[in-house]
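During the second half of the funding period, the structural biology subgroup turned its attention to how the target accommodates small molecules. The most pressing case was thymidine-5'-triphosphate, which had performed well in the primary screen but for which no bound structure existed. We therefore specified the complex as follows and requested a full 3D prediction, including the ligand pose.
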Amino acid sequence: MTGRKIIHVDMDAFFASVEQRDDPSLRGKPLIVGSLPGERGVVSTCSYEARRYGVRSAMNIAEAYRRCPNGIYKHPDMKKYLAVSAELHRLWESYAETAEFIACDEAYLDVTSTADAYGGAVAVGRLIKERTKAETGLTCSVGVAYSMAAAKLASEEKKPDGFFVIPTPEKFVELIADRDVRVLAGVGEKSAERLRRAGILTVRDVQRSYPRVRELLGKFGEDVFDLSFGIDRRQVTHYEEADAKSLGREVTFQRDTDDFSFLSDVLDLLAWDVARRLAAIPLYGRTVTLKITYADMRGITRSRGVDCTNRAAEISAAAQELLSGVEKRKVRLIGVSLQNLSPSYQRQLTLDDLLAGGEEREAAFARRVDELCRRYGETRPDRDELGERLYSTIEKMEKSRNG
Ligand code: TTP
Ligand code: MG
């Protein structure tokens, strides 16, 4: 292992596996957790038996039912999964010098300084896999590598119940050189499409196309290029509530404006970007704050409590409501932020959540952001891309308004 020693661990079919563990009659069967057929909503996850029929997370439940009419359908029991999640986090972080929890069933562990005590990083990886099974009765997939991107790839490589080691950048590159560019961390469908149109299809193509990749993807292109050679400088970062009190975005206009419908458009873009960044960590918050500086430099902030969230539609709804309540005069700066952040999603699940009404609103909001960007001649950046283009979009919006 060169450099750091990183483990990525991810539970297999998490919600579905918990249900199968607790009800033996569900084992070995296609189990779909999410909405029920006949309801509106989507699949949260499904057992590997159901995946054989082509059922996937986030798939519309009607489509899932078409593909797998003999499946067993169950509503999620979030309380139960979050309790298991807390148990997993406690267990996993006991082996690491730093632990970063990416989702309720997934973490990066930096074991560089702790590994020797167990006989090395590979031994720690094996131990974590065994202990997870022994303590929770659930299987996970573990990747051991020299970087975060390689560890994540390694854990995905042999899923489910997998174990895979990528000790060096050379091995990483060997493994992915001929694969689609999407294998590179952070490259979403939109970036991939842009690269494809330029004839850059595989990782090997990226390696040969430096200036072009930089042109097409901006600064993010540099990371993509580095990663095509196995270089990933990201560090495992532990998020404590204290680390991040607030996360927000704000913009100062070139010219002051009292066009509140324009301000409302800008606010949606800012809310979308805040949500995107929160989701990437992930963090959730309970207070939405609107900040405005008027042309005379007097500033105000207005806050509102919300249900624990990092959804753009919910952040936007709160911010828009706050905006409708402020004094309507010339504005110089507008911003939105989320406070009371926490790495854990603690929310009383409403029926609406279960029926995935929230996800539909989120999808509708994404369409609105798309529409906004299109109106101003931009495409919405991918959720998993850096939001660098946010400000250029807002600038374009301003210019087109100011003529
Ligand atoms: P994942 O780790 O993405 O999926 P998984 O654990 O079910 O399956 P895999 O073996 O491929 O890792 O997500 C963890 C849990 O998060 C999953 O069990 C259910 C929930 N989830 C959703 O509710 N909606 C989604 O779209 C996704 C991707 C996950
Ligand atoms: Mg998982």
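Two results from this model are relevant to the next phase. The pocket of thymidine-5'-triphosphate (ligand 1) is lined by residues 10-15, 44-45, 57-58, 103, 105-106, 159-160 (CB under 6 Å). The domain at 14-77 is CATH 3.40.1170.60 (MutS, DNA mismatch repair protein, domain I).
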